[in-house]
Amino acid sequence: MPDKKTYRILFKDDTPNSVIEKYVNDIKAQGGEAYKNKLYKGIIATVPLTLFNSFSDSAGPHIDTVEEEGTVTTQN
Fold first, then answer.
1. How is 7-48 classified by DSSP, letter by letter?
2. CA pair distance 64, 19, nearest whole angstrom
């Protein structure tokens, strides 16, 4: 099992950009990688599993959903 995973974190529409920037900075300060996505109100974050567990437990009122990034495949 890898010790880091990548997640897409989507914020609610009324979330100020300053709050999103704080999440990015907090994740980076705790050893993760994060950047804002320009296509939707959210961030992509690669974080140690221990950080994700504490982060998801205290997500706060601004986070709409958290999805693990993965490979999308189709069947013919």
1. EEEEEPTT--HHHHHHHHHHHHHTT-EEEEETTTTEEEEEEE
2. 13
Which of 2, 70, 9 lies closest to 34, judged by CA? 9
Measuring CA to CA, which residue among 74, 59, 73, 61 is closest to residue 7?
59
Tokens at 3, concatenated: 């010790």
Residue pair 55/68 in contact by the 8 Å Cβ criterion = no
Q: Which two tokens stand for residue 60?
A: 């706060």
Q: What is the pLDDT of residues 8-62, one digit of tens each?
A: 999 999 999 999 999 899 899 988 999 998 888 999 999 887 776 666 555 678 8
Do 4 and 46 meet the contact criterion of CB atoms below 8 Å apart?
Answer: yes
